Amino acid sequence: MTDNAEHTLVLVFHPHLETESVANRRLAEAARGVDGVTVRDVYALYPDGRIDVAAEQAELLRADRIVWQFPMYWYSSPSLLKEWEDEVLAYGWAYGPDGDKLAGKRIMCAVTAGSTEDEYRHDGRFRATMDETLNPMRITTEYVGAQWLEPFAVYACTPDGLTEERLADAADRYAQILRG
Fold first, then answer.
1. What pLDDT digit, counting tens, does each position of 5-17 carry?
2. What is the separation, in whole angstroms, between the first and last Cα of the chain?
């Protein structure tokens, strides 16, 4: 990667990425294959939940684009992502006086959901779109002065709903987005 090349940081928040995940593991593999992308398995880095704030902030400073990749858990993110936000996006660093370290960076979510896309509609089962479900992430992004990018979502990530063909297509689309 040259000094002028864009750097993307993909932070994967899946508590069982290597043992139970199919979709998030495949997306992470696709991301690892893209030049200029660094993938960090946050649960593997911090199995005890103790986050190295300085290390995480250093990674964020190097990135032009940040991706929070996670499975949808109870219409939210896994708990370590919330803990990560609470600790890493610190007052005086990410917001507040001199808290401008993420200003101008671009942030997006890459989300997998067990439910179908039709269930994430106003007339669907959840009566809310995926964008609306991710609204706290958008607000956080804007609060720290970063630009919110359109989320990437893979739906029906269940053994019955996720065929190898759909999974390969999702991984290809994800890699294309990360290249762009």
1. 799 999 999 999 9
2. 15
